[in-house]
Amino acid sequence: RVIGISVGILVLLFSVQRFGTDKVGYSFAPIVSIWFLMNSGIGLYNFIKYDPGVIKAVNPWYIIQYFQRNGRNAWISLGGVVLCITGTEALFADVGHFSVRSIQISMSFLVYPALMLTYSGQASFLRLHDLDVGTTFFKSIPGPLYWPMFVIAVLSAIIASQAMISGTFSIIQQSLALGCFPHVSIIHTSKKYEGQVYIPEVNYLLMIASVIVTIAFRTTEKIGNAYGIAVVFAEAITSFFMILVMLVIWKKNIAIVIVYVACIMSVELVYLTAVLYKFPHGGYFPIAFACLLLAIMYIWNYVYRKKYYYDVENKVSPETLKDLTTQTNFCRIPGLAIFYSELVHGIPPIFEHYLGNVCALQSVVVLASIKSLPVSTVPPEERFLFRRVNPRELYIFRCVVRYGYTDARNEESSLETLLVHRLKEFMRDDFWVHLKNNNQIEGSGDVVHMIHGTNHNDNIDNAENEEDVMMRANESELEKEVEVVDKASRDGIVHLMGENE
Predict the structure, then answer these.
(1) What is the mean pLDDT of residues 324-337?
(2) Does 317 or 498 have the greater pLDDT score?
């Protein structure tokens, strides 16, 4: 029955993730606040009532005596002690969901004082009730507060998983940006914080994995062993990379790094050796799961880099493109094609493969690359960056489509309309720039003609008339080019997924 209830709670918890960290956090915040305040109050009550003398435990000499008395068993017990600080490993991952200042304030003025009072109160209680060590938390609650505290404890246990879920979303998002994870849908749930994301595929996979672990392990002891190893490994790895950041990025003095290793990382390594003792008793699971994920990420990143380097080294040159389009069996068909590629500069080799096999191409082609920017939104007028591919008569364009993390991407109709509109604007600007460059090259002949003219006024009038005629001719030519794009869009827009980000 307990396992069934646990599975139901897990399904419910993962189901509400789609509403975003903000909404979920606002719903959970009052419960968590009550949880910490009640723990603090009960801890202070027990501390005063039973044995305030436990305050002497802050003296480090007692831990030395503890190890002297218990030896190997004292070292093994550290694997259970580490469970007192579980959750702190999610702080770094959750920085993307909340501001640094909010985490500092909540940790320093609420969480840490509450934990100190809670554990001090339980230690005072155990001084007089040493046989209740297995159920200290509930046995130390004063009678009238038992059931309210029981309800709050259950709700808080549910909420405690939220930090890990939010942290997982953030880590997956960063892995995607580095090309280290298969493509998944990322939904940004906040316009203020880029890191507040929801990933449906990962959410459901986590839910399934959590349900399987709950059913398979059945007892909190094995789950605790697995969680302890995961927590300490996460903290040790974080500290290791912290050393690299301090040396390479922050350029800190080596003495500061040594102090950091001696004071913090050495403690984490001691705890790590202790939790590894529980490897056969459920601790193997997070390590096996981490190895599986590491293999997937390594293989994906290796293939991703190989493919990208191949595309860069084998870009299609303008000469090759012209040769392909002048073949006798090649034809242009009505319509506008949007060919997606991750390559920003140049034409991807898969486009050459496409032309070689299909031997047909729409009258207008846009080679589009979709890129994400670390801003909330990109204005529509700045979303598209165009460049025309030579030769110009092929009507092939390069385009970078830029999105902010809250911009909607799944509306094909709006993308098509805006892309065609911006493409026509680009063609008008590009036409006059191209014309101006050509006139600068040919301008010397016109100057000579005017110098050798017999009548200065006639030359000016003739030049003005010629300029008007040329302007009208150029405008007519421009409108013909724009009409090609209009007609192609009316004939139909095709999306070709050569590569898709």
Answers:
(1) 82
(2) 317
